[in-house]
Amino acid sequence: MSRIAKRVEKALTFQAMEVTKIAQTLKEQGKDIISLGIGEPDFTAPAIVVETLNHAAEAGLSGYSPALGIAPLRAEIANYYKKSFGASVKPEQVIITSGASGALSLACLSTLNPGDEILMPDPAYPANSNFIICAGAIPRLIPCTAEERFQLSAEKIMANWTPNTRGVLIASPSNPTGTSVDNQELKKIIQAVKARNGLVIMDEIYLGLSYDHDPVSALTIDPDIIVINSFSKYFHMTGWRLGWMIAPEDIVPAVEKLASSLCICPSTLAQHAAITCFTDEAMAIYEKRRLAFKERRDYLLPELERLNLQVPVVPDGAFYIYADISHYAHDSETFARDLLNETGVAVVPGLDFGPEHARRMIRISYATGLDRLKEAIARMAPFLQKLAARKSIAHQ
């Protein structure tokens, strides 16, 4: 009898982390690696946030916090949603968590029963499926096309709804595609789910990193949903492991009951420091960095097209580009491995994000500096030329 739980067998391997491990091994061997794989900003927390952390440590504010987080931070986040997105959120609805991962885990554990189905788009962030699986529920990936911006539609939700469907988990902007759900479509989605007494979980981790339009929180459409967010991406605090959930008030006690046992509390020092993220000084820094990410996107898109790495949908947020390699190859795993070994450029194969587009798509992260992105393109060009030559010979 195996000592490993069956849920582990069902869980998806996170290929982005596997690529990172291989890249790290190559770095240790002395090879210069340009990481376009993992979604970690090259920016770090602003100095003002770090200074606040140090002051909190010196003041001895390192004990346990309430399971739901410290009141001043919960209030700041509620105010942030009102000020930045026009959403009315009570501080009592805000739950501070150990990263967005902690928020998703608690959201699934507190709302899903064994056998419940959650609809998600294919492609989607793979860890989201694992949170659902670990709650005993079932993720159902619905294939989505470029014409749909690789996002679920109300029509597809209604067509795939079954007696076992509990709700939907949607990311906007999305990882891996960087695409957002159209506001009118999002309204239809929420209405369709609510008409079936379903649950809406919105991943808004990249909401602050929107480039072509003003970001819209789903809470402005319907306040009776669960929203997940994080200090990792827009606020550039990945290793601080701090995120939050905004939940309907009737769900909060259930989350608190689980959080007090499973997590005790998020990092108290990180919570005190995060209050400073919402100051005018810090927000000005984040806005400047958002524009830097946009500049990187705007550089990469025409360069990838020039290299015949087609981008079916222009990303409007996050820091990812979902690119088609079928001009050169039909196996994204082999493509990504060879690209890393031969050029030192790391990308993530499409297998990470669902089976529908796995073989022909890769995810490229532009969470690294523009100078390194230019070097990556320079390295990729001769590699792709070589692949094209091989393909030409094979067809002769």
TrEMBL record:
Q: Where is the Aminotransferase class I/classII large domain?
A: 31-377
GO MF, one term, reads: transaminase activity
Q: Which CDD domains match?
A: AAT_like (cd00609)
Q: What is its EC number?
A: 2.6.1.-
Q: Which domain of life is it from?
A: Bacteria
**What InterPro entries is this protein classified in?**
Aminotransferase_I/II_large, AspAT/PAT-like, PyrdxlP-dep_Trfase, PyrdxlP-dep_Trfase_major
Essential cofactor(s): pyridoxal 5'-phosphate
The protein's enzyme class: transferase
The alphabetical list of record keywords is: Aminotransferase, Pyridoxal phosphate, Transferase
A Pfam family annotated for this chain is Aminotran_1_2
Stated family:
Belongs to the class-I pyridoxal-phosphate-dependent aminotransferase family.
Q: What is this protein called?
A: Pyridoxal phosphate-dependent aminotransferase
Q: Which organism is it from?
A: Advenella alkanexedens
